[in-house]
Write a structure and sequence with these properties.
The chain has 187 residues and is of the alpha+beta class. Helices cover 30% and strands 23% of the residues. The chain contains 5 helices and 8 strands, in the order αββββαββαββαα. The longest helix has 16 residues.
Amino acid sequence: MDTVLYHQKLLEHYTCNWGQEYNVLTWSKGPYKDLGDHFRVLEFPPTTERNMWAYATIGMSGLHDEFALELHIFSGEQDETLVESLIVVAHYHRFGASLGHWHTINWGRGWRMDSPCSYGLIALPYLDGPKLEILTFDNNKSVHFYWLLPITEEEVAFKKGNGAEKLEEIFEERGLNYLDPFRDTLV
């Protein structure tokens, strides 16, 4: 399989899960060009089944990466600044340290302007389940599609002290509003 076909399969996986309507977005500032000609961020608008915007990477991991992953983030509003957030995370993954399930990243600023959620937790795609989570190719290569969930500094500290599973339990118990960039910390 070549890189073009690989990225085409990633796109088909997203569109099978979220619909055929999407935009391809770029970001002229920062490390976008370092990620290669095939890297993209897709923007999926709300649908009758999904009342939110979805922003997703294609090409965050390469065809030959041992552990391939792509990330998505949800928003209650259309927000192209999320493209920058995904690019920063993809760049860190490719050129800094490999990321995976339950890792956290520090954006260095709020998810949205003045948001207390300045970190992202790489979580399973709970809203979409196993159908989105793993794409396996004929050669048994798999790509994992994870949710980049904005969280607060206090929630990161709680995760480090008590584990990611316990943090996710609290999110479930207390009804995490993952679309509210200005939500209070839940720990």
